Amino acid sequence: MARTVAERADILPLLGEVFREHGYEGASLAHITARTGLGKGSLYHFFPGGKEEMAAAVLAEIDGWFEANVYAPLREQDDAAAAVRDMLARTDAYFRSGRRVCLVGVFALGEVRDRFGAAVASYFARWRDALAAALTRAGFPSAEADDRAEEAVLAIQGALVLARALDDPAVFGRALERLGRRLLDGL
C-alpha cells in the first residue's frame, strides 16, 4: 500500500531504521520501499541522489538531534553536572535503553566509512569535545576532562555493542549508571 508522505523529513526515521537493521550495503531498494511504503519514483523524488543521499540525510538528521539535545546543552548549560546528567538521560532515551544500535557507529565500522567519514568523525569528536567542555567548566583540569570525555564516548558505544551482542539491553543501562558515577565523581 502506498504511503502518503507530506515531507521528506517524514521518511528519515524510517530510512534510519532500515540502515540500522541492514547497514548501508544491505539496505536494498526492496527493504527501503517495504519500510517506507513508497514506490521507487516517490523515493527518487525526495532523494534524487538515491541511497547515498538518503543515508546522508539520515546522518544529518541524527546530527541535528545530537546537536540540539546533547552537544549544545553540554557546551552551554551553566550547571555542568546537570548537563552531564541530561546527556546520560537523553542518550538512554535516544538509544532506547540499549535496544537501538548507533547508526553512526554502524557506518563507522562498515565499508561506507570513507564515503561518510566527515559526518562520522564529526559526530564522535563533537560529542567528546562538548562533554570535555562541560567537565572543564565543572572544574576538572583540561587533560582529565578530555580523558573522561573520551572514555565516556567509548563506554557508551561499547555498551551499545555489548548490549546488542548479548541481546541484553540492561547492559547499556548499567554502563550508563557506572559512567554517570565516574563522570560526576568530584563535581
TrEMBL record:
PROSITE patterns (UniProt xref): HTH_TETR_2
Segment forming the signal sequence: none
Keyword Aminoacyl-tRNA synthetase (UniProt): no
Claim: Cell membrane is one of the keywords in the record: no
Pfam families named among the record's database cross-references: TetR_C_13_2, TetR_N
Positions of the HTH tetR-type domain: 5-65
Record-linked Gene3D superfamilies: Tetracycline Repressor, domain 2
Protein's name according to its UniProt entry: TetR/AcrR family transcriptional regulator
